[in-house]
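Notes from the 1:1 (GR / supervisor)

We went over the backlog. Supervisor wanted to see one worked example end to end before approving the batch request, so GR pasted a single chain during the call. The sequence is below; no edits were made to it. Supervisor asked that the structure be written out right there so they could see what the output format looks like.
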Amino acid sequence: MRTIITLIFTSLFFTLALSQNSDLALRLEEGMEYKQISNSTMTVLQDFNGMKLEIVMSTNGTMIFLVKKVNEEGYDMEAKLENMRMTMQMPQGLMEFNSEKNDPNDILSAILGEMKGKSFDITMSKTGKITDVKSVDTIWNTAINQFDDLPESQKEQMKAQIMKMYSGEALKGNIEMATAIYPDKPVRKGDKWTINTKLESGMNANISTVYEFADLTADYALIKGTATIASADNDATIESNGIAMNIDFDGSMQSEIKVDRNSGWIIDAQINQKIKGDTNIKENAQVENGMKISMSMTNDTHIKNR
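Structure output shown during the call:
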């Protein structure tokens, strides 16, 4: 009987504990390293003038974040790329780039190899917002400029393409997709809150996500998100390889994120995006009256910490 009573009170205590307000936030320790291992598969379908094109791009990479200083606002961190691999399957064939590949003739793989282990600074709030990214653009420039045999025009073209995906501003949005998930006040299981983020990685977008405190266990908190995605400026003109265009798109995103109950760092996250839209190419020497390319994209990302 005593054992039964003990179990009842233990169960009741645990249930009450889970129903109390919880301070969902990052609680990182100074001097500790935290890892993000990400695997992403993006499938892009394009349709222009009845011609259909499918591109499948996979990106695998590991980033390490070292907490250099903890203060009331958040964390001063040192981030570095441990490895990165990209593959792109197109109708013309398969392309692959890998930071671990030792081939001086494979320029992009060599650049990724040069980036490996190079540190840059970021500032992160306790709600996971990235408030500053420093020196990453300089690191990319240095990695590209060391290839003396490359013509300057080719170097500048490579810099422009890489900066669309991995500049400081682009990295800010990419990191925040998995870290800027926390409310600015205590919540309890079942509560919801909204986080707005910006992506600047070729296709600039505004993302508005409604997160829910879905579950709490002894080891982790489960946070679920439902988001709307929209192009930041439908009328904005961007230039790619000398061709002016504007992109109009919208979509959705679903996420399920398990975070460590003590540190708040991601244990495991699944993020799924669906986007549809049009790319409008302006009239130019190659395209007399302009062109509209319809596009649909799915992007499935898995993030873990080990």
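Supervisor's comment: The radius of gyration is 22 Å.
Batch request approved.
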